[in-house]
Amino acid sequence: MGTIKDIAQKAEVSISTVSLVLNNKGYVGEETRKKVQQAIQDMNYKPSRSARKLATGKTGNIGFIIWEGHFYDVEMFYSQIFLGMEYAARKTDSYVILTTVKEEFDPKKEVPRFLKYNDVDGVALAGRVPHTLVEYLDRQRIPIVLIDYAIPGKNYNCIQIDNYHGAYQAVDHLAKTGKKRIGFVGGTYFHPSIKERYRGYRDALEANNLIGNGMPEEYTFVENVETSPLIGEKGISVLLDRNTDLDAVFCCNDPTAMGAMKEIQKRKIKIPDEIAIVGFDDIPTSGFCMPRLTTVSVPKLALGKEAFNLLNEVIDQPSEPPQVRTIGTFLVKRESA
Amino acid sequence: MGTIKDIAQKAEVSISTVSLVLNNKGYVGEETRKKVQQAIQDMNYKPSRSARKLATGKTGNIGFIIWEGHFYDVEMFYSQIFLGMEYAARKTDSYVILTTVKEEFDPKKEVPRFLKYNDVDGVALAGRVPHTLVEYLDRQRIPIVLIDYAIPGKNYNCIQIDNYHGAYQAVDHLAKTGKKRIGFVGGTYFHPSIKERYRGYRDALEANNLIGNGMPEEYTFVENVETSPLIGEKGISVLLDRNTDLDAVFCCNDPTAMGAMKEIQKRKIKIPDEIAIVGFDDIPTSGFCMPRLTTVSVPKLALGKEAFNLLNEVIDQPSEPPQVRTIGTFLVKRESA
DNA sequence: CTGAAAGCGCTTACAG
DNA sequence: CTGAAAGCGCTTACAG
Predict the structure, then answer these.
(1) How far is the C-alpha of B168 from the C-alpha of B163, rounded, in Å?
(2) Which pLDDT score is estimated for A249?
């Protein structure tokens, strides 16, 4: 495939010049530039990344870290975010290297190898990740961006989902559809996104004059464990046993909604006539379950792309103050509500 | 973090010597080696990958390619395989770079960037991938291993699932459980794995004296499109309409089984009493659907690890003849059969 | 506007 | 058994 030398020779210039046009730097005569570009074309030349890295110190890689558990979920949520990053990375010819971490992170014990070997210019972290990891990265001055997560009291670059409005719209739709006793079930309540969804739920209730008579307190089930179909089943059970008039439920995410749906069907309750249900995320499964789930759609690819772009900005200008970018959501009306 | 020079200085040897102990090559006196190792320890030194790459020509990366569509599936099948590779890669401090390709591949138009830039030492391809891609890689003499796929008539390194015995066991279980009219529904029949599953199905039928009276011809539904819940719904519908005595169905994979399940339930037919159902793959969702799906479990992490190991062997010894390694499966009995 | 030269951090013959 | 030196393929001041 040739090296920069071959190009220089063919174009009859020095390698410095080739490098300059390659990187679009300095002044190069129009003629010369043309010649060089032609040679590059002709030889199908691609500069060696390793060599470039050695010379510049940049790796051209960015790391992507998620909690290992998300690989065992039923959901394809984080994979989609990753895919969004990969798409963005293609445009810049950089790579995104994915790895997982355990729930607990101790820098003294084990750190992702791309950190250990300094093989990334920055890292994106999606979903719930160990705070110790984030602090570690911060301490090492490695540029980071959090995706769909935030650490209370700390200020990091992050890409957020508009959890509040998503939830608000979902619950508002339920209300507009005639539902009056709308429950909430959710896990990982310490998760900022879940809290925001709850806030949206409450405010939509209030806007529709549905507060009161035990609403929403008696109609809320939250538990501080990982969200999952199991939490959905359990949550709806508790709510159903406690309130015979429950006529709708907003679940903090789709897997939870799936679980709730299963339990509701087990009890031979009709969806959506007797109990309507709406989730959050719009994972692929939601379109296939029965009935098909009405849910708040999160543009996962866009999340990934935005994260990639923001991270690159941070890498280029490390001294800028942290940014928060929020990505909008929209309600997908299907059969369950 | 220091460079090789710092280590050399600290250990009072030349950088050549440091390099030798780093790579466990040549002869180095016991004393010297100790000193060097101590210095490496003390300074927490990690050799620069870029520099090493430049010097050796090896990249230390391997590519992982799947069809883009698998990212939009409901299933977490390929993600798990990827995770298996990532686990294996950790041990060797190499990276696996994941990218997707479209259904059609034309090297003249677009090739994955890590191929274009020569940034991987080899590549693993999982599931159905464009034959033109595989041939392209082969032509470029890039070491490859296929995972759960094969190209008829071609001989490539590959990691296979024991599709035949998996299917056989599944159907045998159905038969032993009293089922007599056992159907088969599947998509992508051109896929070698699916063919093998069908062969297992047939042989198990035969071993249980279930062939005849239209079995299995009348009880088989295959279509040459991507497997999905939709195919499951459609397939079981056709079978049900055609054979009133159908009492079980073996689906070519879990998503298909999910679809079939949905349709069966829609018709108010009892699972497993009236119709038992078993799938293949054991994706996470299978444990959560209702009823929980009996299925053939594929050790996905093991698939990934094996692929990684085989690929590395091929990279080290490119002239060895192609190998096929088969990973066993096992039946997970849950509620649907 | 262009080129010669140093340097990035390694590995690998080659001497000794 | 160990070191001096060339080389891997780039980038980047620095002259001119």
Answers:
(1) 8
(2) 97
Number of domains chain A contains: 3
pLDDT score, position A327: 96
Q: Are B272 and B336 in contact (CB under 8 A)?
A: yes
Protein-contacted bases of chain D (C-beta within 7 A): 1-5, 7-13
Report helix, strand or coil for A225.
coil
B111 and B137 belong to one structural domain: yes
Minimal C-alpha gap between B209 and chain A (Å):
36
Say whether B51 and A48 touch across the interface (CB within 8 A).
no
Question: Which whole-number Å values give the CA distances from A150 to A79, A156, A323, in the listed order?
Answer: 20, 8, 12
DSSP reduced 3-state for A297 = strand
Look over chain A and give the mean of its residue pLDDT values, rounded to a whole number.
Answer: 92
Q: Name the CA radius of gyration of chain B, rounded.
A: 25
Helix %, strand %, coil % for chain A, to 5?
Answer: 45, 15, 35
Q: Find the Å distance, CA of residue B196 to C1' of nucleotide D11.
A: 55
Touching check for A3 and chain B: CB below 8 Å?
no
- State the pLDDT confidence band at A127, using cuts at 50, 70 and 90: very high
Whether residue A261 contacts residue A289, with contact meaning beta carbons closer than 8 Å, is answered with yes
Protein CA A316 to sugar C1' C2 (Å): 29
- Nucleotide nearest A27, CA–C1', reads C1
Are B272 and B193 part of one and the same domain?
A: yes
Protein residue closest via CA to C1' of C7: A55
| B111 and B176 inside one domain | no
Single pTM value for the model: 0.89
List the single protein residue with the shortest CA to C1' distance from C2: A17
Nearest-by-Cβ selection for B54 from A50, A83, A258: A50
pLDDT of residue B74: 62
| Shared domain check, A270 and A250 | yes
Nearest nucleotide to the CA of B11, by C1', is D2
Angle between helices B15-23 and B30-43 (to 10 degrees): 90
CB contact under 8 A, B288 and A262: yes
User: Is there a domain that residue B16 lies in?
Assistant: yes
Reported as a single tens digit per residue, the pLDDT across A260-303 is 998 998 899 999 999 999 999 998 778 877 789 999 999 999 99
B250 and B197 assigned to the same domain? yes
Range of the domain at A306: 61-161+301-329
